[in-house]
Amino acid sequence: MINLTVNGQAHSWDGDPSLPLLWYLRDEAGLTGTKFGCGRALCGACTVHIEGQAARSCITAMSDVANQKITTIEGLDANGDHPVQKAWREANVPQCGYCQSGQIMQASALLQQNPHPSHDEIRETMSGNICRCGCYQRIESAIRLAATGT
Ligand code: FES
Ligand code: FES
Fold it and tell me: Do 13 and 35 reside in the same domain of the chain?
């Protein structure tokens, strides 16, 4: 039995320990805000927080998250009012939206660790999160907005 915490709630899994966390979140826990893009840690669509760190849930086995705290986009803020989410709305970031939960989870982890990232730090941290719609400039603008607290 694998015990873990997802968005503050206790979960347990007695199935295949090699099951990717992404499948558990979407198919078992019903948390479909986290998206599947590539399944190979190449796009960032599946990004969640594990113990506060951004992680690719598509390549994270359930056995790797035993007794860990997971946060998904649904748990970032109960009302969708995390500073990064507010900034995302203010900057009108999304186009199709598919990559966006992964982008927000990556950005919120960045700001948690580095509240005032430089241009280069934002670029470097976000470089693994692919947006097929090319919203990169608005993503960076929103991160800057969130960092200034406005
Ligand atoms: S689905 Fe995990 S990085 Fe692409
Ligand atoms: S908003 Fe469409 S993939 Fe990023």
Answer: yes
Residue with the smallest CA separation from ligand 1 atom 3 is 41
> pLDDT tens, 46-90?
999 999 999 999 999 999 999 999 999 999 998 999 999 999 999
19 in Cβ contact with 86 (< 8 Å):
no
Interval 77-106 mean pLDDT: 96
Asked if pLDDT for residue 150 goes beyond 90, the answer is no
Domain span at residue 42 reads 2-75
Q: Ligand 2: distance of its center to the CA of 93 in Å?
A: 9
Alpha carbon of 120 to ligand 1 centroid (Å) = 23
Residue with tokens 């986009």: 73
| Ligand 1 proximity of 105 Cβ (cutoff 6 Å) | no
State how far the alpha carbon of 92 is from the alpha carbons of 4, 73, 88, 139, in Å: 34, 18, 6, 9
